[in-house]
Amino acid sequence: MKLFSNIFSAVSGNSFVGIDTVTKPVLAGGKKNPMNGRVTKIMTDASVMVFQNKKSNGYENMVKRRLLKEGKSPESFTLKPRVWGERVENSPIVTHNGKEYLEVIFLRPGKVTYELDGVAIDPSEIIGLDRKEESVQGGLDDSVVIRTFSKESIKKIKIGGLVIQ
User: Fold this and answer.
1) Residue 27: domain span
2) CA dist list (Å): 128 to 31, 41, 60, 111, 132
3) Residues 25 and 41 sit within 8 Å (Cβ to Cβ)
4) Would the CA dihedral through 106, 107, 112, 118 be positive or negative?
5) Residue 125 CB neighbours (<10 A)
6) 113: Cβ contacts below 8 Å, ≥ 6 apart
7) How many Å apart are CA 164 and CA 50, to the nearest integer?
8) DSSP state for residue 137 in the 8-state scheme
9) Which of 9, 79, 138, 162 has the highest count of CB atoms within 10 angstroms of its CB?
């Protein structure tokens, strides 16, 4: 996707996007794990939201709206600074060590499958696959899940009626 940053230049506020990704999950056990580096995670038809943070932070706004909806104080949530990378001003793009990433809020994860050496495998059979739980955001029951995907891991983007592969 050579026009990666151009794809999102028309986003004003936020936009709903469909993405397909292919990633290599980190497996516990490091080099001793016989499956390390051989497992691929394929996600198709995920529904996400990208946000540009032009006038305010889209993630923070969504967390606070959900807290209000749950009858909780939005003041219980404090946005923390990014742990890594630098967000490109007025865009959902993050840069880090010369690479580009897309930061999204998950609305629906889509279908996830795994492959070992290109052959389908049940996730329960993957040695060291982390089944991590989402963190709690200021006591929010309906968490706002934010993820950052490298440009290389995104195989398809659907935005504004366009499909980019």
Assistant:
1) 4-164
2) 11, 14, 33, 21, 12
3) yes
4) negative
5) 10
6) 41, 42, 120
7) 16
8) -
9) 138
117: Cβ contacts below 8 Å, ≥ 6 apart: 38
CA 23 to chain centre: 11
Cα–Cα distance, 102 to 26 (Å, whole number):
19
Strand ranges (E), 6-63: 14-23, 39-51
**Mind listing the pLDDT tens digit for each residue in 68-108?**
999 988 888 888 888 999 998 888 899 999 999 999 998 98
**Which pLDDT score is estimated for 138?**
60
pTM of the model: 0.84
- Residue 43 pairs in a beta bridge with 21, 112
Weakly modelled stretches of the chain, pLDDT under 50:
1-2
* Counted domains in the chain: 1
Angle at 93 between CA 157 and CA 136, to 5 degrees: 95
